[in-house]
Each structure stands twice: as structure tokens, then as C-alpha cells.
Amino acid sequence: MFFKRLKASGLGQNSYLLGCGKGVGVVIDPRRDIEEYLEIAWNNNLSISYIFETHRQEDFEFGSRSLAQATGAQVVTGKHELFGASDIRLDNGQELMVGTTCFVAYETPGHTPESMIYAVFPKDVGRKCWGVFTGDTLFVGETVRMDLSDPEKARENAVHSMMPSTKR
User: What is residue 136's three-state secondary structure?
Assistant: First the structure.
């Protein structure tokens, strides 16, 4: 499996490019400037077929639309109305097979009402979860802001953002 993290300077935003077997590429939370994704995909014989969004961003704009237009990729989100337009909307616990990799979507409202995480199960690791893309729902060594949608509901949002089991 090909894996590359791309960090946007000055924004504290991470996005990811995965190769999911058979030359199929997936981008998670792409930033607005898409040239680096196109170059990395090209250099690694990947065709970007899917773009996953974990949540909408309040402080910058995702590059999902531009990347989809440049590659023909389908945009994948949860079913919450705040995601706006997307090609594939996944329910809580729903699976999407991409090449040889299974993505399982989980609703994790809290940081934002529509927050989603995606657990990744590549074929070559069996039933073990290889990783989870959490957007801004979970940070290492830090807490996530829970007051963005409504400062009065920060405590309630924190309770709702408890990460679900990633067992399949």
C-alpha cells in the first residue's frame, strides 16, 4: 500500500494520498492547491479515483472540487446535509471497497456536526484495521475544539465525539 501524508504549511492541515491496489488512488481532505497530489499520483502510477472528506473546514477551503474536476474522482462524504454536494454519501458503519482496500465510515459529531472518520482495511492485512483517518476529530497530545458549531454546546459535542469501535 502506498501512503503519503501532505502537510499544509501555516494551516496545521494534513491530507493523505493512499494507493489502494491496482493503481487506484484515494485522497483524504485535500487542500486547495492540488498540483502536488497530481504529481505524486503520476510518479507512483496511481489514478486518483476517490476523494474522502472528514468534515467541512471553517478556516480554509478543501480542494475536493478542483481535484475531482482534474481527475474524474468521486467525492465521498457522510450523509449530513452540511457536507453539501458529493458523489457518494456513506451511512454510519457503511463500507466502501476501493481497489483492494475497504473503507468503513463512522459518524463522529462533536468537532463539527457532520464529522466522519474512515477506518481502513487493506486486503493484505486481513481483518486488522491498518489506520483511521479522523480529520480534526482526534489529535495526538491535544484536544479538539468542540465549540465551533455552537459555543453553548461544547460539552455536549465532546460527549458525542467519542470514537466508535473500529471492529468489523
Answer: coil
The residue among 134, 129, 130 whose CA lies nearest residue 118 is 134
For domain 2-160, give the CATH superfamily: Ribonuclease Z/Hydroxyacylglutathione hydrolase-like (3.60.15.10)
Q: Which among 75, 101, 137, 162 is positioned nearest to 145, based on CA atoms?
A: 137
Over the stretch 104-153, which tens digit does the pLDDT of each residue have? 999 887 667 768 899 999 998 778 899 988 876 655 555 555 555 555 65
Q: Where are the domains of the chain?
A: 2-160
27 and 73 Cβ atoms separated by less than 8 Å: yes
Cβ contacts of residue 87 below 8 Å, gap of 6+? 68, 74, 75, 76
Task: Report the 10 Å Cβ neighbour count for 69.
Answer: 10
List, edge to edge, every strand of the sheet that includes 2-8: 2-8, 13-19, 24-28, 47-52, 74-78, 88-90
Closest CA to 76 of 97, 61, 45, 59: 97
Contact (Cβ atoms closer than 8 angstroms) between residue 96 and residue 90: yes
pTM score, whole prediction? 0.80
